[in-house]
Amino acid sequence: MKFKPKRDLTYAIVIWLGPALILPYLIFSFSIYMLIVFSIYLLLAFWIWNSTSYKIENGELLIKCWVMKKRIKISEIKSVRKTKNNYSSYCLSAERLGIKSFNEGEIYIAPLETDIFLSEVQKINSSIQIT
Length: 131
Description:
single chain; alpha+beta; PH-domain like; 3 helices; 31% strand
C-alpha cells in the first residue's frame, strides 16, 4: 500500500521560494545564465515535492524522499509516536511520526493518512507501541 506525504505551508515556502524569487528577475532582465539556474532549481523543487512517498510492501516500509531511500522491516519496529519537529528527515511536514526500530534508531515520516498507515503497520506487527 502506498501513502502520499503530508505537506505543510512551511515546507512549501522553503521549497518553492527559490524559483519564485528568480522568476521576476528572469522576466525583467532575461539572461541565459538565470534561465539555466531557474530551470535547474525548478526541476529540483518539483522533484523534491513529488518524489516523497511511503510504501508498505512485503513486510517492509519503503521510504523515498528525493535521492534518499530507506527500507525498514516492520517486524523490527518497536514504537511509533506522533510528534511535531523540524529535524531533517523524509518529510514535507512538521507534523510527523517518529518510528523507532531495533536497528535504525528513530526515523521521521509524515504520511497524509496517518491513521490508515498506523493500522496497516499494526496488521503486520501488532507489538508496535503507538503513542
